Amino acid sequence: MEMIDWKAETQAAYDLVAPGYERLLRTELDANPFDRALLGLFAELVGTDGSPVADLGCGTGRIARYLSERGLDVRGMDLSPKMIEIARRENPGLSFDVGSLEDLDMADESCAGVLAWYSIIHAPMEVLPQIFAEMHRVLRPGGFALLAFQSGNESVKVSRAYGHEVSFTAHRLDPEYIASLLEAAGFARHSSTVRQPGPMESTPQAYLMMRKEAQQHADD
User: Fold this and answer.
1) Which residues pair with 208 in a beta bridge?
2) Rounded distance between C-alpha atoms, residue 172 and residue 156, angstroms
3) What is 3-152+159-212's CATH number?
4) Coiled-coil ranges per the record (predicted)?
5) What is the pLDDT of residue 2?
6) Which end of the chain has fewer CB atoms at under 10 Å, N or C?
């Protein structure tokens, strides 16, 4: 699949499934203490001094809402206008905009934290270095990035999701390789975790907590 197509097919699919996505996943975190714990850790590491946190690929805003309830100033971005429409409706106190992971409409070093919660899984591998460079650019020194994705080493063509016939690609990603790409973009690894599949999951789930160093080394 050409790189020019992946965003178009991903946007079309999520525009279609947005209402079902919101309905099915709205309370998903309630039954997932592991994910809540990692998001809570992220919130504590980032801090609540009022500096913004970017939820990149925010969907309908469920994770942004969770982090906001823990004192963070969260701003969501997603490729799908329909997802953003629902996010704004369901979370009127938060800020959401349509945008692309490859070209973030954010100033350099403007974010205390960056979250990519299952939002890199549709990007081709050759696009990930640009996405990670953008994440590093907008994160302030000392800030943290948290990424979640399905662990594996394959690409899956999805034909049905959230009650609709769709057509898009989801990539299962090797956590060590993704960590190496993030390190190449300038991040330092804070922690990495892989848990086994839950009742509704078919693959292990990976989580990477990365940090942008507070200052460059003297010999850099």
Assistant:
1) 147, 192
2) 8
3) 3.40.50.150
4) none
5) 44
6) C
List residues bridging with 187 in a β-sheet. Answer: 212
Q: Which of 18-27, 122-131, 160-169, 177-186 has the lowest mean pLDDT?
A: 160-169
Structure letter (DSSP) for residue 72? -
Query: Hey, is 95 helix, strand or coil?
Result: strand
Per DSSP, the three-state class of 192 is strand
C-alpha to C-alpha distance for 29 and 35, rounded to whole angstroms:
7
Which phi and psi angles does 60 have, rounded to 5°?
-90, 10
Please say whether the beta carbons of 18 and 79 come within 8 A: no
Provide the 8-state DSSP code for 135.
H
Q: Tell me the two tokens of residue 144.
A: 């943290």
Distance CA 220, CA 198 (A): 43
Please say whether the beta carbons of 28 and 173 come within 8 A.
no
Question: At a CB cut-off of 8 Å and minimum separation 6, what does 138 contact?
Answer: 54, 104, 106, 107, 108, 109, 110, 111, 114
DSSP H or E run through 178 = helix 175-184
Cut 0.85: pTM above it: yes
Cβ contacts of 140 within 8 Å, gap of 6 or more: 51, 109, 110, 111, 112, 212
For tokens 């990007």, name the residue.
123
198-212 tens-digit pLDDT: 887 889 999 999 999
